[in-house]
Give the backbone structure.
Amino acid sequence: MSETDVARALQVARQRLEMVGVPDPARDASALFVALAETTVGSGDTMPTDIAEVFEQAVQRRLRREPVSHITGKRAFWMHDFIVTADVLDPRPDTETLVEQAISRPVGRVLDLGTGSGCILASILYEQPDATGIGTDVSDAALAVAERNMAVAGVAERTSLVKSDWFASVGGRFDLIVSNPPYIAADEMAGLSPEVLHEPQIALTPGGDGLDAYRTITGDALAHLSPGGRLLVEIGAGQGVAVSTLFRAAKLRNVKVFDDMNGKNRVVSGENL
């Protein structure tokens, strides 16, 4: 069986990705090769034809600006490599700010609204071994991915997944409610990167000014928060004031805005006091 030179294949892939405007072509070429070939390439300098063919197929998908996570089927987030498909939002490092705030104090019962891949809830429960959680989503496909990711994090036995439009099918009260809802305004969609447009639109935008999900969540939050319970939501750039105003209008107290690793407003929190 003939073999392909690894260094040459990576160089060519980088050049092709660069030509179509992929932001970091060398990183992506390497990531695709390592994930798909699993570094099993004989001497380390060459790869068998079958692996070369799989690599070429992956590069072609990336040339169409499909996200690397969709091609490899996984994305690193918090402490795990979570399963990712085109049915869920691709976990981003900025969202770890939400997890950091969520685990800043002990919790017993957690609700994740619009759980998507389940990475937020799974990460919180992983860090809070005495906690239990419910994740909701309107998408059956997303809930199927979330179920797999609860197993990835080893928290499946402490998790329930429910098909629900926000709070519609959820009962009881929670010590912590978290959500990374769709928040991109309709007029901002055209400016998104090609990679983002491969993700489910329902997870990206509610239309309009991008605030509808926050209006729904804050409107029903107090009815589902235990005394002293917290609501934490991820927000988009420039939404800190608007979402904080919605929190206060809903009678949530001790409203705060937390920045992500890049110094941008990323999470709004409020309490049932």
